[in-house]
Amino acid sequence: MPGGGRTVVGRQTIIRGVVKGEGPILVRGAIEGEIQLKGGLTIAPDGRVDAEVQAESVEISGEAQGTMRAAGRVFLAPTAVFEGDLNAATLVMRGGSVLQGRTRIAGALQDGRSRISH
Prior knowledge:
Layout: E1 7-9, E2 14-21, E3 25-27, E4 30-37, E5 40-43, E6 48-55, E7 57-60, E8 63-76, E9 81-93, E10 98-105
Parallel strand pairs: 1-3, 2-4, 3-5, 4-6, 5-7, 6-8, 7-8, 8-9, 9-10
C-alpha cells in the first residue's frame, strides 16, 4: 500500500529524535524532537508532543509545544493545549482549547480575493 497505514505511538512509548513519514501518525504516548510528515498528525487526549512539526494537517486533543507548521488545517479539540509558534492555512479551535504563543494563519485565497497590503 503506497504511503502505508496509520502509525500509532502507544501510551507507554516515548520517541526522542527525528520522525519522518508518508502516512498519518496517531500519538497516544510522546514524541520529543522533530516530526516531518506528508500525512496528518493526530495527538490523542493522552498524547504529548514537544517538537518542531511539519505536517499536512494536525489534530490536537492532548498537549503539544514547539513549532507547528501545517500545509492545511490545524484543529484544536476542547481538551487541546498548545504552546509555541503555529503556522497553518486554517485554524479551528473548539471552546476549552488553549493556545498560547504566536500564530500565523495564511488561509487559501479564493478567486477574486487579494491579500491585504499595508
